[in-house]
Amino acid sequence: MKAAPFQYHDPTSIDEAIDLLGKLENAKVLAGGQSLMAMLNMRYAQPDHVVDINRIADLSYIREANGALVIGAMTRQRDLEFSDLVRRTCPILHEAIQHVGHRQTRNRGTVGGSLCHLDPSAELAAMAALHNATLTVAGPKGSRELAFKEFALGFMTPALEVDEILTAIRIEFWPKGHGYGFLEFARRHGDFAVASAGALITLDAKGLIDRASLVIGGVGSVPTRVESAEQILLGTQPTQAVFEEAARACKSIEALDDIHAPASYRLHLAETLARRALAKALLSLRSDGEQ
Amino acid sequence: MDSRDIVVTVNGIRHEATVKTRVTLADFLRHQLELTGTHLGCEHGVCGACTVLVDGRTARSCLMLAVQAHGHEIRTVEGIAPNAKELHPLQTAFQKHHGLQCGFCTPGMLTTLIEFLHDNPDPTEAEVRIAISGNLCRCTGYQGIVDAALDAAKTMRNST
Amino acid sequence: MSIQAAPSQRKETKVFGKRVPRLEDLPLVKGLGRFVADLSFPHQLYMRVVRSPIAHGTITRIDADEARKAPGVVAIWTHADIAAYPLIDFRDPSAEALMPYRQPLLAKDRVRYVGEPIAVVFAESAYLAEDAADLVFAEIDELPPHMDAQADCASFAPGISTEPIVLKQGFGDLPGAFASAHCVVELELSIGRHSGVPMECRGAIGRYDAAQDVLELWGAAKVPLRNRETMARYFQRSSASVQLYELHVGGGFGVRGELYPEDFLVCAASMTLGRPIKWIEDRREHLMATNQSREQYHRVRAAVDQNGRILALSDVFFHDQGAYVRTHGARVADLTIGMLPGPYHVPVYQGIGHFRLTNKTPAATYRSPGRYEGSFVRERLVDAIAAKLGLDRIEVRRRNLIPSADMPYTRQLGALGTEVVLDSGDYAGLLQTSIDRFGWDELQKTIRVRRAQGEFVGAGIAMFLEKSGMGPSDSVTVSVDPMGFVEVVTGGASVGQGFETAMAQICAETLGVDYRRIRVVHGQTDRIRFGIGAHASRATVMTGNAVHAAATNVRDLALKHASVLLQAPAELLDIVDGIVVRKGSPSGPTISLGQLSRQLSPGPEAIARGTNGLSCEGWFYADHMTYPYGVHLALVRVDGETGQVFVERYMVASDVGRAVNPMIVEGQVVGGVAQGLGGALYEQFRYSDTGQPLSLNFAEYLIPTAHEVPDVEVIVAEDAPSPLNPLGIKGAGEGGCTGVGAAIASAVDDAIGIPGAITSLPITPAKLKALLKNRRDNSNGDST
After folding, report:
1. Topology of domain C36-145+202-280, per CATH?
2. Are B9 and B74 in the same domain?
3. Taking all residues of chain A, what is their mean pLDDT, rounded to a whole number?
4. Would you state the pLDDT for residue C416?
């Protein structure tokens, strides 16, 4: 289980990297390597060129800008986990990140790497979908921005040209004190989720849900915002019955079927986890209010 | 074949070496530096046996290229004891609590726990179990390892 | 940093039964162990196996031309290059009917599983060998794969069926017993395909020493001396010219140390190519090439009286052997039949095992072979009897247990070629002890309260009967050197279980020396002529008693000569801390074992001629195995919505006769539970309909982590020392694993409130969810 031969490149600037990617045939970008290295070792991936972007400065940061969290693509997952800014402004991300692999993989694994690998059950991709994050992509003609919805084209397929690199992700803050809940179901701790659910809600002065976001990961070919469920929630009292109804809407996702779970079971999990995530979100809202 | 010259510090010793760029850090350590304490149990980043410390943070050495270690400081199981005569408290505790049987997973368990106890010097049992959940052990059922980690944490707290 | 605990000044001689630290640990915690992948010889080549991508087919052509031109390639072999080598032999004589099903080193014209070796590449590095292997192209005409051991038999080869043998054992009047029964309980049950999967993959280095004409195999394990016999026979060489060397072994569990095609290939190539040949299996290969185990389908029936007493038991099962019959022959199926009745009195019994081949990776033994399977079947049946008659699960067990007064109990069955005679045991006593310690009755109340709050929580029980100490014999040589250090040369093997420490403890106790001054040799065929190794929980029983015999002989020899030198009758002498003293007179004259060794060795100080130093051989013989037994108890919670099972508590009570080192015994039990739990809830080798393996990495083959394995409560019982050996020992290696599938199934049934719901392992969340859904649908149906 040793990687097939490849040419190794380690550009030190984004421009250099993009230039290389434009010139080289069959090249792969190596970020944290927590998926790609395994695929190389197993020879599932056999690129002729590996462009290692670990030596590019300035791609690793977590900062606040204009009411949003901006994260550099090469930020290690561990740094998100231990970031006070993340914990404070985007608590669901803090929670979700702890489900990503294990400490050893989070130390190396990057935010951008996970998003570009786009495993349907990746927690970071689910978080990006949940917030409909804005992704910044650098290419030969400069940078462009696109919403996660446009970025996640399909099963493990990001909307990236071969000579483009994801450089940053922007997540708009939800109002302070919003309700959040993230849950996932995996066979073992640290495994890729068979299914996950993330929910964000806010209530208006009358206690009705005035904003809701619900994402299901691991079930469809990409993490999926369930807009029909969100519509059910809006303007309602956050009751168990409403949550159940919204959760049922998650069964509309076209579910994957593989060795870990049949599609019907995944849909069942989607419904269950959605309901629980909403309940958890409500609970966090209430406990926050009590403080 | 594509190769590079690298400079890497391993267990405090500076090494200048020429590596094939596709060679993993694990294979470099094991075969070029003959530090065979770092074990390969799966080579796809799940079993944790090859865990080493890179600049103080754990990493799967099967998921890193040797060339990526250039300019970094690596610590392997051979380098966790303070010197040839003394052991790290974790090494002592593993013996005391029967934290190993065949010993194959042990290097990865030790390196993982070194970082973990640094981050969390006073962990609960549940936290220890999560911390080592990225390291598979097929012999012990983990109990001795968990006990050893908790005992070593205590020793380390008392000695500082 | 702490100072390493200074070796205690206190001598550790009275160590039998003590929790002393292991001798094995120090190099391993320092990263200084030497596993086979860690060893390299100058000038070595790396071997890479090209494996069949097709489950069943005919090889029409293998094109290795391009591969031969690849950088670093020295040779490439296909079957044609080694056509003269025979099929891989069984270790023990096996039924003639099995002979055609043995595996070749490389597939000849037919491939029978994905992963079957079809070619090998020898190259200058592991990377280059793998590069070249990718360039070997095999043209294979696909044949329909045979994937279901329960389906009608297919053809293994022209005119040869996929069912070589039907095993059958039993006693008593089966039809009569069933005809007169109060009721009959019948179940269909299955156990999933899983296996040992040690953390170290296999590995082997073949080295031919032309100067000495010796063929060496490095990386041997489990049964090095037996494997030497097989190797010597295979290569038609004298035993003395074939040597096997065991290094550190990263877990055995039954699968490691059997002889596989790769072991022969590295040896053959080392002779042909004249260079050491190193082969290190990778994990993907391991999951498609190393022995799998367990997959069986049972149809079991019990005839019972109105009190739940078993009158007769009948079991017909289908054993999925996979593509070939490897070194074990039909052992697992045979053990399933021989051990199925377990600790219960069964007046009439019949076991029929259909031993069948399929197009999957070949199967063989895995920790508790046949007993993990059989215990699941038997204990499910006992639970079903209780449910059917409305009796308590524990009470039904109590009523059927063999009373200790009936020991030794002749089962009228055979296992591993010997008659099953249960040597000793207080089964009912240990059952009571364990349910008391578990707080079973109290727990029922807690469970009721939690259920009332909507939780799915339940308790389960399984009893197990193990076998250990397989004979027929073991020899050991114990020698004391002039400095008083002791060497114990065994024919045993270490797979990480603590063999060295246990042997040293036995020797230390017998001889009166500090166990840390004892070096235990194992797995080195050039050091001892006879021995078997470490499997079937035999090492501590067999080799341990041989150590005891040899150490006793050394002790007697030392005291005999000391008696002359100290002018005191031998009966009045004792050995304390390696020094011969007069009993009760510490200030009297003494002589050390080291001094005695010098005087008994050839040389100027020799006091006798023809002596062999202070060194003696000792033998232990066993006509029958010893039978450990015990109880597994589990408390589980099921997430009623997801079907996920959480094991909240787990207890094993295991009677090992006498524990040489309780710490090591507990380690064996807890480790066994973790593996058993894997088979119960997580691990399964799955295949597609076309025979493609679907569990080829650790994200698909799910080994439980520290997060899934609970803290296991262990009762190491010594109620019933074995009368069959002087130390009273029974093996401890397997009982922790044996009962887990059964106990978890029992607990899950209880948690979801559907007796008999669990009929197959592993219990996956999706499967359990479907069971719960059916129940809900049915109960909805009832109410409307």
Report:
1. Aldehyde Oxidoreductase; domain 3 (3.90.1170)
2. yes
3. 96
4. 87
**B159 vs C contacts (CB less than 8 Å):** 1-2
Which of A42, A187, A265 faces C284 most closely, judged by CB atoms? A42
Q: How many domains does chain B have?
A: 2
Q: Structural domain of residue B70, as residue ranges? A: 3-79
Task: Estimate to the nearest angstrom the gap between the alpha carbon of C676 and the chain centroid.
Answer: 12
- The C-alpha of A190 sits at a distance from chain C's nearest C-alpha, in angstroms, of 9
Question: In angstroms, rounded to a whole number, what is the distance separating the alpha carbons of residues B57 and A104?
Answer: 8
pLDDT at A291: 38
Instruction: Please name the residues between 258 and 317 in chain C that touch chain B, using a CB distance below 8 Å.
Output: 282-283
The CATH number of the domain holding residue B93 is 1.10.150.120
Q: Do A192 and C708 touch (CB under 8 A)?
A: no
- Which subunits sit against B, judged by 3+ Cβ pairs under 8 A? A, C
**pTM for the predicted model, two decimal places:** 0.97
B27: closest chain A residue by CA: A2
Residue range(s) of every CATH 3.30.365.10 domain in chain C? 1-6+421-470+624-784, 147-193+292-401, 471-621
The separation between CA C76 and the C-alpha centre of its own chain, rounded to angstroms, equals 35
- Residue B63 has its nearest CB partner, among A8, A54, A108, at A108
Task: For residue B146, give the chain C residue with the closest CA.
Answer: C706
pLDDT at res. B150: 98
Task: Please count the other Cβ atoms lying within 10 Å of the Cβ belonging to residue B26.
Answer: 25
Q: Report if residue B84 sits inside a domain.
A: no
Mean local confidence (pLDDT), C530-546: 91
Question: Is the pLDDT at C171 greater than 80, yes or no?
Answer: yes
Domain for residue B37, yes or no? yes
Reading the block at residue A209, the tokens are 């849900």
Neighbours of chain A (3+ CB pairs under 8 A): B, C
Rounded Cα distance, A271 and A282, in Å: 17
Q: Name the minimum distance, in Å, from the CA of A59 to any CA of chain B.
A: 17
Q: Given CB atoms, is C196 within the 8 Å cutoff of chain B?
A: yes
Torsion-angle region of residue C737: left (phi > 0), alpha (psi -120 to 50) or beta? Answer: alpha
Closest by Cβ to C2, choosing from B92, B104, B141: B92
Cα separation, B142 vs B129, in Å, equals 8
Q: Tally the residues of chain B.
A: 160
Domain C1-6+421-470+624-784's class?
alpha beta
CA distances from B159 to B155, C116, C569 (A): 6, 55, 54
- Please identify, among B49, B79, B109, the residue that sits at the C-terminal boundary of a domain: B79
Is residue C289 a contact partner of residue C281, using CB atoms and an 8 Å limit?
A: yes
> Does B145 sit within 8 Å of C199, measured CB to CB?
no
Q: Is residue B101 domain-shared with residue B48, that is, in the same domain?
A: no
B67–chain A Cβ distance below 8 A for any pair: yes
The model's pLDDT over C719-729, given as tens digits with 9 standing for 90+, comes to 999 999 999 99
Q: Which of B19, A260, B50 is nearest to C283 (CA)?
A: B50
Q: B55 and B8, same structural domain?
A: yes
* Annotation: CATH topology of C471-621: Aldehyde Oxidoreductase; domain 4 (3.30.365)
Q: Determine contact: B34 vs chain A, CB below 8 A.
A: no
Last residue of a domain, which of B16, B47, B79? B79
Burial class (CB in 10 A: 0-12, 13-18, 19+), C69: exposed
B40 in any annotated domain: yes
The pLDDT assigned to A76 comes to 98
Give A136-170 pLDDT, tens digit per residue.
999 999 999 999 999 999 999 999 999 999 999 99
pLDDT of residue A57: 87
B133 contact residues in A (CB cutoff 8 A): 102, 188-190
As its CATH architecture, domain C147-193+292-401 has: 2-Layer Sandwich (3.30)
Residues C338-365 have pLDDT tens digits of 999 999 999 999 999 999 999 999 999 9
User: The complex's ipTM?
Assistant: 0.98
Is A103 in contact with B27 (Cβ distance < 8 A)?
Answer: no
Residue A60 CB coordination number (10 Å): 17
Among all residues of chain A, which has the CA nearest to that of B108? A104
* Interface with C, mutate which of A103, A183, A187, A189 (most C CBs under 10 A): A187
Tell me the pLDDT tens digit for each residue of C548-571: 999 999 999 999 999 999 999 999
pLDDT, tens digit (0-9, with 9 covering 90-100), for C566-619: 999 999 999 999 999 999 887 889 999 999 999 999 888 788 777 789 999 999
Weakest-pLDDT range from A98-102, A287-291, B28-32, C442-446: A287-291
CB interface of A with C, residues 177-216, below 8 Å: 185, 187-192
